[in-house]
Amino acid sequence: MSNHLDQLRDELDQVNIKILDLINERGRLVKEIGDIKKSQGMKAYDPVREREMLDHIIDQHQGPFEYATVKHIFKEIFKAAKELQEGDYRETLLVSRKKKPSDTIISVGDISVGNGENQFIMGPCSVESQEQVNTVAKAVKQQGVNILRGGAFKPRTSPYDFQGLGEEGLKMLRHAGDQYGLKVVSEITNPKDIELGTKHLDIIQIGARNMQNFDLLKEAGKSNKPILLKRGLAATINEFMNAAEYVVTQGNSNLILCERGIRTYETATRNTLDITAVPILKQETHLPVMVDVTHSTGRRDLLLPAAKAAIAVGADGIMAEVHPDPAVALSDSQQQMDIPTFEHFMEQLKQPHAVVNNG
Ligand code: PEP
Ligand code: MN
Q1: What is the Å distance from ligand 1's center to 123 Cα?
Q2: Is pLDDT above 80 for 353?
Q3: How far is the CA of 295 from the centre of ligand 1 (A)?
Q4: Atom of ligand 1 at shortest range from CA of 331
Q5: Domain 106-350 - what CATH class?
Q6: What is the complex's ipTM, to 2 decimals?
């Protein structure tokens, strides 16, 4: 009896290996088919073909399994094959680390982003006046920060809210940057204005609300300026990577990714900072990754711990908002730091061992 059991078990082991071999053989065929489809510009997934295959299998089926069980098993096999094809597709993304294993370092004049040192992008939510942006620029410079931010084209939820000073704002930001020896970054929202950004800025920002504005991404891809691309409010990491791909496919690979929080059911913070997006993006892509602690948390008291966390998980830099008098700021008055708070923030981050970086 026990002999017979052992024998059956032996047979079962052999069948398992046969199934394994057959599944892998199927996988190889699917990959080959996927490559041909790709070269002909066809979509990998073909539901009609899947239906035909299932019908054929059911036709041939003789038991002892139920039809539904067989269907379920094959659907899982089809799903695995589809994932295999999609894996190949990601392999071909230009932003993927599989395509380019080494880190991309972005040169912004004489400074670098992504070279292992932390860069900070600090400045007001919106440029409101020359005096306001100069005051912040001075404080930012004193803390050894290299990049000044300030919005001029503001994507506001309400059309009645301050919309930004437009090109005048870009000029004020540039002026402050030149005066204090800082690089400048600002958001451009309209493809037509990429030209203005190229003229006045060192880095062009594409904001969360425009992460999938494909015309804007393509236009940014045609410029030679570094682009700071923020993750969309409800974008998956895969969608974020594909948005980045839009820029790179147009020829501009000077791209910095920025995690800025995503919408979740949590209301304690303005958005939910997806801290694991940082190491995932660092693994999956070769691009520098920064973290915007202001828009992700929406809370002044969380800026410092969020920045420490970002650095600890390998971010290449931090963005945060600073305003001379946040209470009267024309946008985001709840979450910008005043100058003493900003100084404390920077001093804390610069402390040796402020962050334990486990690499
Ligand atoms: C900003 O940085 O000014 C901004 C509007 O951020 P986000 O696009 O991430 O909301
Ligand atoms: Mn803001």
Answers
A1: 12
A2: no
A3: 6
A4: 3
A5: alpha beta
A6: 0.99
At residue 164, what is the residue type? G
> Quick one: tokens of 340?
């003493």
Evaluate the CA torsion angle 17, 21, 23, 27 in order and state its sign.
positive
Q: What are the tokens at 266? A: 């949590």
Evaluate if residue 358 carries a pLDDT over 60: no
Nearest ligand, measured from the Cα of 334: 2
Give the position, in ligand 1's atom list, of the atom nearest the Cα of 209: 8
Q: Is 47:98 a contact under the CB 8 Å cutoff?
A: no
Cα–Cα distance, 119 to 141 (Å, whole number):
13
Residue nearest to ligand 1 atom 6, measured at CA: 207
DSSP lists the bridge partners of residue 228 as 205, 256
Rounded to an integer, the average pLDDT of 147-175 is 97
Nearest atom in ligand 1 to 230's CA = 9
pLDDT over threshold 90, residue 20: yes
Ligand nearest to the CA of 232: 1
CATH class (in words) of the domain with range 2-92:
mainly alpha
Q: Where are the domains of the chain?
A: 2-92, 106-350
For residue range 235-267, list pLDDT tens digits in order: 999 999 999 999 999 999 999 999 999 999 999
Nearest CA, atom 4, ligand 1? 207
Are both 2-92 and 106-350 of the same fold?
A: no
Share of the chain above pLDDT 70, in %: 97
Pocket, ligand 1, Cβ cutoff 6 A: 125, 151, 155, 187, 207-209, 230, 260, 292, 295
Q: Are 170 and 152 in contact (CB under 8 A)?
A: yes
